[in-house]
Structure formats: structure tokens, C-alpha cells
Amino acid sequence: MRSNRVKPDAITFLSVLPACSHAGMLIEGCSFSLAMKQDYGIIPNIDHYNCMIDLLGRTGRLVEAQQLILNMRVEPCVASWATLLSACRKEVNVSGAEQAAFRIMQMDPKDATPYIMLANTYSAANRMNDAQRIMMKMRAKDITAELDKVLCSNMSPKAMIGIDSMHISRESSDAAMNMFIRSMNV
């Protein structure tokens, strides 16, 4: 950006920051985040903060990610805590996962995601009793996971993915992937 004398805007950084996150480029991502404010006068919004939470989480900086959520200048949203929860699940950080999950449960009491992700974290930590307990708590509150539809263009649903089944048929996933590949080769 600097070498081409291009003046980035807020949307530019919503491309750059996730790229740094997915590449595991912590230093570069932090540098771009600072430049956004200091060099270009762009005030970060919740999406920029969530990108930085993701970057910190993907690079194992869970404490820093949580501190960012607690200290950012905008109100954290469910996605902020869910991003941290996902990173905690990946790192099998039970304490962090519990904190993030309970924040989500407070913000969106009918969302099944924090229960399921927390149960998965407990399972990964070989805490099966806790995993069962949290799933029973979810069921006791009559919280159910919604089904997602995999849609391709204007085609009918190719598969239904439910939390209880946690699988998709091979034929459906192959059909969706082939359609995606064909559309990219246009």
C-alpha cells in the first residue's frame, strides 16, 4: 500500500487483517492495525477488532485476545466472544472457553453454539462429565441447534447439516465442491 501510494480505507484493512490472520502473520497484522489508526486516521470498528481477536487467537495469544475484547473502544458482540471461544477450543484452553461461552450465553441465551463449542473443548480436555453436563444444560433450557442448508446457486438444498449428526453426505459435498470449481473456471 505504501509503496504504491495507495490510500487505504476501512474496507482495505478488512481485507488485509484477515489475510494476516490466516497466514499467521502476527507482527504484520499488528503493524497494519497500528498504521490504520496512526498513519491513516481510520478509527477501527467492531469488524476490525474482531479481525485482530482472530489474529491473536490463531497465533495462540489468547490472553491478549481476551484483553483486547475487554478493552476495545466498541462494545464486544457475540462474534467477538465466539472468535475467542473458537481459538480457546482449538488450543484446548478450558478456562478461556468457559469465560467466552458464558459471555455469549448472556448475550444470546438461545444460541446453541457456545454450549456445543464448550462441550467440544471439555471433550478435547478429556473432561467428558463436563461435556455431558453442558449438553444436558443446553437441552434443559430447550436450546436446539438450527439446521443449516447447503445451497448452490438456485438449486434445491443438497444437504442438511445438523449438530446431532455432524456430517454431510459425500455426494452432497462433492456436488457442492464441483459446482464451486466450475463457477471459478468461467
TrEMBL record:
GO terms for molecular function: RNA binding. PROSITE patterns: PPR. GO terms for biological process: RNA modification. This is Pentatricopeptide repeat-containing protein. The keyword Repeat applies. Keywords: Repeat. PPR repeats lie at residues 45-79. It comes from the Eukaryota.
